[in-house]
Amino acid sequence: MAHHTSAKKRIRRNAHRYEINHARVNRIRTRVKQVEVAIASGDKAAAQDAFKKAMPELMRGKTKGLLHANTVSRKISRLNARIKALSV
Predict the structure, then answer these.
(1) At 88, is the pLDDT very low, low, confident or very high (cuts 50, 70, 90)?
(2) How far is CA 16 from CA 1, 46, 50, 64, in A?
(3) Which residues contact 86 (CB under 8 A, 6 or more apart)?
(4) Is 76 exposed, middle or buried (0-12, 13-18, 19+ CB in 10 A)?
(5) Which of 74, 84, 65, 87 has the alpha carbon at shortest distance from 32?
């Protein structure tokens, strides 16, 4: 158990940041999963719509330091390529 005031504060801050970061990562996963489902169903319009909603979440995750920049770029690129490959 922490004895110093600063250590106690750090424990509180870490717990608070964990909750925020965990929620952000879950939101990103949900958005990406929605794109995956739309791609699997073969609906190009729905996939594009879901992709437009997922991109800002991914970028925000990169900005906040949750995901590596190259990881986000790779995910966006691969999702976009799969959407383009769908027949109209």
Answers:
(1) low
(2) 18, 35, 29, 15
(3) 39, 42, 44, 47
(4) middle
(5) 74
If we measure between CA atoms, which residue out of 44, 27, 56, 31 comes closest to residue 80?
44
Percent of the chain with pLDDT over 90: 94
Give the integer Cα–Cα distance in Å for 20 and 31: 17
Q: What are the structural domains, with CATH classification, of the chain?
A: 5-85 (1.20.58.110)
Q: Which amino acid appears at position 16 of this protein? A: H
- pLDDT single digits (tens) 38-59: 999 999 999 999 999 999 999 9
Q: How far is CA 47 from the centre of its chain?
A: 16
